[in-house]
Amino acid sequence: MSSFVLDCSIAICWCIEDEATPQTDALLERLRDEGAIVPPLWYFELGNVLLQAERRGRLNAAQVSARLGLIAELPISSDEGRAARALHETLLLARGEKLTLYDAAYLELAMRRALPIATKDSALRAAALRVGVDVLPP
């Protein structure tokens, strides 16, 4: 069972120490207890952010591998089966809310599953609130 949609902006806080806050730490505990769901692009987005952190010297290759190993142990499920069918709705949502298609994928998933969304992204937070999706952390 998934209790919220997890955006990469939150997950990265668990991977790079100076990004963490008490609110993101609390979300990690909630995730461990209740699980979360992500759109399939989440894995590539997280990997890219970690690769950029490595290239900028914030993490080394061993630290990136260790973080990916820890993330893999978390109860995170992917919305694989619905992604292709959701593309049309996601594109419309991106247009209507002036989001990237990537951010709209998180929002569409939250709307379809009637789940709150965990994000630090200000545009995604604002769009979620406009369409009636609860946002974590509050």
Q: How would you explain this protein's 3D organization?
A:
With 138 residues, the protein is mainly alpha-helical. It has a single domain, classed as 3-Layer(aba) Sandwich (Rossmann fold). The chain has helices at residues 8-15, 22-34, 41-55, 61-72, 83-97, 101-113, 122-130; strands at residues 5-6, 36-38, 76-78, 117-118, 135-136. The chain has a 3-stranded parallel beta sheet. The protein is globular, with a radius of gyration of 15 Å. The two termini are 21 Å apart.
Cα gyration radius (Å): 15 Å
Remind me, CATH topology? Rossmann fold
Number of helical regions: 7
Largest sheet: 3 strands, parallel
**Overall pLDDT metric:** 94
Strand arrangement in the largest pleated sheet = 1-4-5
Number of domains: 1
- Text of the CATH class: Alpha Beta
At the fourth level of CATH, the homologous superfamily is 5'-nuclease
- Structural class by secondary-structure content: mainly alpha
Helix and strand string, N-terminal first?
A: EHHEHHEHHEHE
- The proportion of residues in beta strands is 5-15%
Low-confidence stretches: none
Extended strand count: 5
End-to-end separation: 21 Å
- Overall, the morphology is globular
CATH architecture: 3-Layer(aba) Sandwich
Share of residues in helices: 55-70%
Please provide a brief summary of the model.
Keywords: Magnesium. Pfam families: PIN. With 138 residues, this protein is mainly alpha-helical.
Write the layout of secondary structure elements.
Elements: E1 5-6, H1 8-15, H2 22-34, E2 36-38, H3 41-55, H4 61-72, E3 76-78, H5 83-97, H6 101-113, E4 117-118, H7 122-130, E5 135-136
Helix pairs in contact: 1-2, 1-3, 5-6
